[in-house]
Amino acid sequence: MKHVPFTDVKLSDNFWAPRVETNRQTTLDIQYNHLIETGRIAGLDPRYKPGDHTAHHPFWDSDIAKWMETAAYALATQPDPELEAKLDAVIEKFAELQGDDGYTNSWITAVEPSKRFANLRDTHELYCAGHLIEAAVAHFRATGKRHFLDIVCRYADYIDSVFGRDEGKLRGYPGHEEIELALVKLFDVTGNERYLRLAEYFIDERGQQPHYFDIEARRRGEDPAAWRHKSYEYNQSHVPVREQSHVVGHAVRAMYLYCGMADIARLTGDTGLVDACERIWSDVTRRHLYLTGGIGQSRTNEGFTKTYDLPEETAYCETCAAIGLVLWNHRMLQLTGEGRFADCMERGLYNGTISGVSLTGDRFFYDNPLASAGGHHRQEWFNCACCPGNISRLIASVSGFYYSVTDDAVWIHLYGAGEAHVSVAGCQVKIKQGTAYPWDGDVTISVNPEHSADFGLALRIPGWCRRAELSVNGQPLEGVVARKGYVTVKRRWRSGDTLVLALEMPVERMYANPKVRSTNGKVALQRGPVVYCLEQVDNPFTPLNRVALPRASRLTSTFEGSLLGGVVTLSGEAMLIEDDGDQALYRSTPIPLRPAPIKLVPYCVWDNREPGEMLVWLREQA
Amino acid sequence: MKHVPFTDVKLSDNFWAPRVETNRQTTLDIQYNHLIETGRIAGLDPRYKPGDHTAHHPFWDSDIAKWMETAAYALATQPDPELEAKLDAVIEKFAELQGDDGYTNSWITAVEPSKRFANLRDTHELYCAGHLIEAAVAHFRATGKRHFLDIVCRYADYIDSVFGRDEGKLRGYPGHEEIELALVKLFDVTGNERYLRLAEYFIDERGQQPHYFDIEARRRGEDPAAWRHKSYEYNQSHVPVREQSHVVGHAVRAMYLYCGMADIARLTGDTGLVDACERIWSDVTRRHLYLTGGIGQSRTNEGFTKTYDLPEETAYCETCAAIGLVLWNHRMLQLTGEGRFADCMERGLYNGTISGVSLTGDRFFYDNPLASAGGHHRQEWFNCACCPGNISRLIASVSGFYYSVTDDAVWIHLYGAGEAHVSVAGCQVKIKQGTAYPWDGDVTISVNPEHSADFGLALRIPGWCRRAELSVNGQPLEGVVARKGYVTVKRRWRSGDTLVLALEMPVERMYANPKVRSTNGKVALQRGPVVYCLEQVDNPFTPLNRVALPRASRLTSTFEGSLLGGVVTLSGEAMLIEDDGDQALYRSTPIPLRPAPIKLVPYCVWDNREPGEMLVWLREQA
Questions:
Q1: 3-class secondary-structure state, position A405
Q2: Catalytic pick from A302, A346, A535, A613?
Q3: Could you confirm whether A320 is annotated as catalytic?
Q4: How many interchain CB pairs under 8 A, A with B?
Q5: Catalytic residue at B153?
Q6: Nearest chain B Cα to A286, which residue?
C-alpha cells in the first residue's frame, strides 16, 4: 500500500483546511522570526563563535530544518516567491556551514569541533542530520531543485563513511533516533541503496553488545554507569530492537525508532521488525496510551513509565510524541492495511497532536495534560522548541494521511470534505468527499475515474463507530462487513458514481481499564474521533471536578459555527457539589449536590479562550 | 493553665503505653547505634577533621540532641544506669566541643570555622542550639544534674552576646526556627530573663527591614535574589511575625516559630502574637490540614503550597511537621483553654505523627502520604534524620499532653487508661482513667483528692463527638453543655468519686471542603480520633481505588486484639470494579461492578505488615 501524497489531496473541511491556512500564513512566519530572534539562523554561520548573539543550542539545527520542511510543504501546494527566497537563503547558510567532507552541524562546528561524533548517546548530531534530510527531501519534492538535496546527500555519504561494521568505522548509532526514517526518505527520492543500508545498519546495530554507548563513554573518560538516565531503555538501546516487546524510555525517540523499523520493513519485508513493531504497538495501545492519543506519561524522562500509569494532570504527552505516534501508525497502516492503526492515527490527529497549537497558530503546548488546575497555557516559543516546528510540518502535510492505493484499490483512511487525485488500476480518479466530518458521520463520496474502470474502494469503518450504513448510487449495500476496519466496494466505477457512508456518531461514554488508577470511577466523552473536555470558561465553577456526570444523563451535541472555528459542543445535566465557602475543612455530613448544566468542547481546542481549569475525565455518578 | 508534666502521668492504655515502652527499649537503642555508625557522635570530637570516618552534616548535632532529650525523658520515668552513662558520655563530648566562648556546634567547628553565624539563612547553627537546649533542660529536669544545663547556658549566653539590637551585635535570627521555644524552656528552668528576652528578640526581629538575610547574603558576596528558595516565605521571614496571617513555607520551621510565639505570649500576655497565631491557625486548619493532622503538602519546599491543595499520594506531611503542629496546638490550648486546639492536637497524635514509626520502633516514615501505590515504606534511618528522633521524643513525653491545671480546676484534654497526680486548689489529687480509648468512648474517671476539696474538673468533649453523656457517682448530669469544648464539673470532690463519661463513637464518614480538588467524590472513615485506611494486605485487589463505598453501606467496627497491637478495624461492603485483565485500554461500555467486602485499619499502623497499596480517601458511590 502506498499513501497518496498530500499534494494530491486538497482538504476543504472546517477542521484541517483553516489550520493548514493559518499554519502557512501565520505559523511559518512567526516561527521564522523566532529562529532569527533567538539566533538560531545566525548560529549557522561557520564563522559563528560561542558568545556571539545568543546562546547556541546542540539541536537548534533541527528546529530550523523543521521550519524548512514545513516551508517546502507550503510551497508544494501554493507558490510563494517570498517564502521560497527565505528558504533558499537558509539553504545557502547550510551550504556554507557544510564542511569539505560533508559534515553539517552548527553546534559541533562552532562550539565543540573536537567532539564530532564523540557522544552519540547525548548529543543530537544524527538527529539533526535526520531532520535536515527530511527537509531536503521535502524541498526537492516541492520544487524539483537539487541544491539542498545534494547538500544532505553529501552529509549522508559522509555519515555512511563514518558508521558501519566495516573495519575502521564506528559501530555507533544515534542516541536520539530520527535519521533512520530520514535515510529511508532519502533512499525513496534518490534510489540510492546506500542510504537504505545505512538506515538498516543503525536499526540493527542498536542495543548490540558490547554496547556502543559504554565504549564511547569510556573513550571520553567517563563511567558509563554515571549517566543520568541510568538505563539504556531511555533511548531504546537496552536490547537489540528485534528483541523489544515493551515501549520504554523517551517517547519521541521511541516513536521515531519504530517509524524507521516500519519503513525498513516496508522496503525489505523484514518480518522480525514487523513483529517487534506489533508487540510494542500492543503494549503502547493497551497500557500506555492516553485517550487523546498522547503518550509519554512523565516529565522526568519525557517518556514512558509503568504500565497503566496514566495520571491526568501530570500527563506529559509531548506534542512531538503524539506526532511520532501518528507517523508510526501511518506507516503501520501502509504496511498492513489494518484499521486499528488508522484508528490510533486518527485519535492522535484530532486530539493530542493538534492541541499543540492555538487556533491562531502562534502559541504552542509542549506538554498536553488531560487536566489542568488552571496554570497550563500555550507559550509563544520554547528554548527547547522541537514541538512548534513539528506540529507545523504535520499540519502542512496532513492531507497525506487520508488516502492510499494498492494495485487494484483506493483506500480511504480518513474522512473530510475535499478532493483527491489518485491513480489506480491504470486510471486517474478524482475522489470528492462531501461531509462535515469530524462533526458529522455522513460522508458522500463521488468517484470520478477518467474512464470507467474496475477497482475497489476500501472505506474505513472507524473503531469508534458501532453502526455504519453504506449505499452506492442510492442503493443500500446490505450485509457489508468490515474486514480489519475496512469495507471494500469492488465494481466498475463510472464518473459520477456516488457512495454514501453513514457512520453513526453518538456521544460515547468512554471508560478506561480499571488497572488505570487515575480514571477509576471516571468517564470521558468522545464523539466520533473527537475527545471532549470541560473548560472553566464554559462551566464557571472551581474546582471543575466538583461536577459528576450521572450515568443516566442525556448528552446532546450541537454544532456551534461561531465557536472556536466551528465545533460540535456537548451539553447535559450533571450534579454539582455545592461550594459552601470557607467552612470547616472536614465534616461528617455529605455536602449537598445540585443539578447543574455542563458544556464540553473538543479537547484539541481548549485554552483558546479565557484561561482556566480543564478536565477530560469526569467523575461519574453510577 | 499549666500542663501537668509527663512524669506525673502514667499511661497504661494499649495505644501509647506499649509505644512508650518500645520507644524506651528499642528505639533509643537503635537510634544511638545509628548515631554511632553514621559518625554523628564521632563528629563531635573537636579534633574531628572533615574526611574522618564519614561525611559530616550541618545539622547532625540536632539528631544527637533529640536522642539526648528522649533519653532524658526515659530516665525521668525509669532509672537506667546504662542509658544514663551513655548520655553522660555524649554530654561530655559536647563539653569538649564547646569553645572557650561557649560556642558549641560541631559542623562549623570542624568544617567551616570561618563561617560562624555567617549564613543564618541556610545553616542550622541556631536550630541545633535550640535542640541542644531542649535536651539539656530535659536532662536537668530528669536528673537534677546541672552539667549539661551549664553547657547550654554558656552557649545561650554567648548567642545572646552576639545577637540583638545593641550596638555591635548582629541583627540576625535563625533561618530554621527552634531556638525561640528552647530559650523559653531555658528561662522556665533557670528563671534567667535574659533567655526570654533573647527569644522575644528573635521572634520580633524576624522579617524586619532591611532584611537581615539580604544583608548577610551581600556580606558573603552573594546576590540575595539568587537564593534557591526565592521567597523568604520559605522561612516565615517575609514580613514581621505579627503581620502574618497565612501559613507559608517550610512546615517544620513554621510550626516551631508558632510554638515560640505562643510561648512568649503565655509569659508576656502579648496579644499581638496571640492574634497572629489565631489567624495562622485558622488558615492552617481551614485550608492546609490533612485529615491525619499531617501538614506541608509539598516535597519541593517541605512545606505549604496553595490553599485547599491537598493531594493524597504526593502529600509530603513530614513526621516532624505533624509533631510541630501537636506542640503548637498544645501551647495554644494552654493559652486559651479551647477544645479546638485539643482536637487538632489529638488528630495529629493518633494519626499523622505516630504513623512515623513502626510498631517495632525501628523503622520510620519521613513523609506520611495519604495514599500509596505500594512503593512507600518505612526506612531504618535517613541521612537527613530529623524525624526519627523527633517522634521518639514525642512518644517519650506524650503523657504530658493529657492534663492541665488552673487555679481551681483540673483539665482533662485526652482520654486513655492511666493515672495522674495533680495538684489543684492546694490539694494533691490522684486521677485514674479506666477506658479502652481510643477504641471505645466510655471513660470512667476516679477522682481521689488527698482530702475532700472544691475544684472543677474540666472534661474535654472532643470535636468528633456528637453526643456525650456524663454521670457522677452514678447520677446522670442533665443539661450539661460543653463550653469551648469542655464540660466543667464543679463540686466538693471526695476520694472515690467516680465520673463516667460516655462519648458516642460511631464510624463517621468524613467529607472534605469541595474546594479540595483531590477529595471531591471521596469519603474517609474516622472513628473517634482515629482515621482509617484501606491496605492491600486486607483487601487483595489492585489498584485499591477500584473499590467505591456506597453511601448506604453499613460499617461495623471490631476490636481485634491480636492485630497490629490491638486495634479496632472497620468492615463493610463496597462495590468493586471488576478487573477484566489486559483488555482494551478504553471502552464505551461501563465496567461491571460486584459487591466486595472491605476492611480498614487505623492509618497510623499501616505498612506494618506485607507491603502494598494504601488509601485513606475512598471513592464514594452516592
A1: strand
A2: A302
A3: no
A4: 119
A5: no
A6: B585
Q: Per residue in B234-287, pLDDT tens?
A: 999 999 999 999 999 999 999 999 999 999 999 999 999 999 999 999 999 999
Distance, CA of A509 to CA of B588 (rounded, Å): 5
pLDDT digits (tens, 9 = 90+) for A434-446: 999 999 999 999 9
pLDDT tens by residue, B125-179: 999 999 999 999 999 999 999 999 999 999 999 999 999 999 999 999 999 999 9
Give residue B57's pLDDT: 82
Comparing alpha-carbon positions, the chain B residue that sits nearest to A525 is B588
Task: Quote the pLDDT of residue B266.
Answer: 96
> What 3-state DSSP class applies to B492?
strand
CA nearest neighbour of B339 among B227, B459, B163: B459
For helices B60-77 and B81-97, angle between their N-to-C axes, nearest 10 degrees: 150
pTM (2 decimals)? Answer: 0.94
Q: Delimit the domains of chain B by residue range.
A: 12-401, 404-503, 507-621
Nearest to A520 among B289, B577, B583 (CB): B577
What's the mean per-residue pLDDT of chain A?
96
CB contact under 8 A, B585 and A510: no
Is the domain covering A404-503 a CATH 2.60.40 domain? Answer: yes
Long-range contacts of A490-494, Cβ-Cβ distance < 8 Å, separation of 24 or more: A490/A409, A490/A454, A490/A455, A490/A456, A490/A457, A491/A454, A492/A452, A492/A453, A492/A454, A493/A429, A493/A447, A493/A449, A493/A452, A493/A453, A493/A454, A493/A455, A493/A457, A494/A449, A494/A452
Give A-chain residues touching B585 at CB under 8 angstroms.
285-287, 289, 512-513, 516
Q: Which of B585, B589, B594, B614 to mutate to test the interface with A (most CBs of A within 10 A)?
A: B585
Q: What is the pLDDT of residue A53?
A: 59
Residues of A in contact with B542 (CB under 8 A): 515
Residues of chain A under the 70 pLDDT cut: 51-55
Domain B12-401 matching CATH 3.30.70: the answer reads no
Q: Does the pLDDT value for residue B348 go beyond 90?
A: yes
Q: With an 8 Å Cβ cutoff, are A517 and B543 in contact? A: yes
Contact A515 B590 (CB under 8 A): no
Distance (Å, rounded) from C-alpha A545 to C-alpha B494? 59
Burial label, A114 (beta-carbon count in 10 A; 0-12, 13-18, 19+): exposed
